[in-house]
Each structure stands twice: as structure tokens, then as C-alpha cells.
Fold this protein.
Amino acid sequence: MNSAVNLVSSDCENRDLRAEIAALQKEDPKLSQAEIVRQSGVGNTVMSQWINGHYPGNTMKVEAAIARWIDAYKVRKQESKAFPKAPEWVATPSAERIISALGYAQLAGDISVVYGGAGLGKTSAIKQYQRLSPNVWVATMSSCTASNATALEEVVDALDMDAAGGAAKLRRAIIKRITGSAGLLVIDEAQHLSINALEDIRSIHDKTGIGIALVGNEAVYSRMTGGNRAAYLDRLFSRIGKRVKLTRSTKADIDTLIKAWKIDFNDCRTALHEIASKPGALRGMTKVLRMASMFAAGEGRDINSADIKAAWRDLGGE
Ligand SMILES: Nc1ncnc2c1ncn2[C@@H]1O[C@H](COP(=O)(O)OP(=O)(O)OP(=O)(O)O)[C@@H](O)[C@H]1O
Ligand SMILES: [Mg+2]
């Protein structure tokens, strides 16, 4: 880390920064000029002028900023190499349940609801399903999508459409786009949907017959079942075909994930089960395993349970 700071004041006069950039771009073809502009904070026009050797302003200042970015970029690259990647996808039993509910909704043109606590693997399973099946659109709600118009904007975005306007107009455009697609519209973080937005989603389903999956925390389901709101949502509730409730990460989920990390199962299992049974579940466990891998890699050996406990403490776990 310190190297990035030290190099801020690095001497850029003796460096061929254009050649350095070209070398980085050769190594990583995704590193476009636009990306460098974004990461470095040097403006687009200034960057273009400087690259072409026509910058009319204070070149030293620009070059200092570019040198600073190059050095920070290299440090980051180095660190991310040392920081192990978690297995992107592991077919845990809970994930299979989620995927089967998504598959059912798409195939039957029905509504599935998947709900449960944080870090149990809902979003990971959605992403995997999206990789496997055509016409799967995922709109992720948040506290910013509380109104039905903003929620529909999120759906428009997931569908990669250009539509604009109020809720009614967006709803019509969405219906037109997905009718006959045999697709699946997944609403992740669906607990943020307002009653009106839920009604809109229901009517989109009724008009098009495409599958819908509402995925989120317990509130997704309890709002449809409890309290005096239920009456509003009866119509939606009665349309739900499949429900998947996830209470906690199961022993089998945790074991499957541990095995995917290819670590000493017997030594690490107890500590990892303890971590994954806390709120944050598989997310907490994955973070700990990444950190523990770094500790172990630093000493050139495999992960053991002491690394796991140390990583858990280091990440502020209790
Ligand atoms: N099936 C899986 N394969 C690999 N990693 C997984 C799997 N499920 C969960 N994880 C790990 O756990 C993390 C949390 O999972 P995910 O984001 O899917 O949880 P979530 O249920 O959507 O949580 P939230 O309710 O907070 O959105 C993931 O980023 C990933 O590291
Ligand atoms: Mg999620």
C-alpha cells in the first residue's frame, strides 16, 4: 500500500508515461482511454490532448496525475493477484432450490417468491440462472425505487430499453417488449417494492404471462400475508405458484462451499460452520476465507483453522 503513496511524488520527468500506458493497455485490453480517464480523474479532453502531445496547459501537473494513477494501478493489480478469488459459483442445495423456483416460474409463466436472510446465496443463484437461461432480466430494487415509476425504471433498465415517461407509459413499453418472450423477470431486493409497484408487476404478469420471481428478505413475503395490507395484495398472493423460504444456510450449503475452496475440510469445518451460522451467512464465510487465504499464502502454506479464526477477528467478527 505504501508504495502507492511513495510514488505519488515519484519523478515523472524521467519516465515515458505514454509508453507505460501503452504497455498496460497491451496487458489488459479492457483498459481503454475512457477507463483511464475514469480511474485517474484526468479529464477526457486533457487526456486526449496529452496522449497526442498537444496539451497546451501545465504538462507537469497532468503528468504527475498520470504517473500517480499508473503507480496506484500497478499496486492494485499486484494486490488483487495476491488476494484470492472465491469460487464464483457453487451448486449448494439452497442455490438449487432457488434455481428450481426460477426455472419453474419461467417455464410455467408463473410467479415464484424466494425470501430469506442476508448472505444466503439468493443473488448468486439468480446470476447463475441468468447465465444458464435466455431472456432472464434482473431488476434490483433499493430504497431509491420506492415509487412505482422508479421501480419500473429499474425494470426498463434491466430490459436494456430506452423508454422514458411516467409509470403508465413505462408499464406499457415493458409489456410490449416482453410479450411472447417466454422470459423471466426477476425482481431482486423486492422488499423495496411499494404496494403500487407490486400491483404493476402483477399486472405486467397478467398481461404478458411471462414468469416473475420476487426475491428478497422476509418482508417480501410477510407484507403479502400479514397486517391490513394483505387485502391489497390478495390478487398477487393468490397468483404465487412457488415459494422458497430460506431460514439459514444449511449444513450442506456450508459443507459444499468449503469443499469448493479445496481446503482441509476436517480442520476448518467447525470454525466455518460457526461463522456461516451468524447473520451474513455465506457472505461472511466467503470474506473470512479470502482473508484467511491471504494469511496462509503469505507463509506459503495451506489454510488452517487458526487462519480462519484470525481472519474472523481481523474482520471484526464476534
Ligand atoms: N452458491 C454460491 N456459490 C458461491 N458463492 C456463494 C454462493 N452463495 C453465496 N455465495 C457467497 O456468499 C455471498 C453472498 O451471497 P448472495 O449475495 O447471493 O446472498 P443474498 O442471499 O443475495 O444476500 P442479501 O439478502 O444480503 O442480498 C456471495 O457474494 C458469495 O461470495
Ligand atoms: Mg442479494
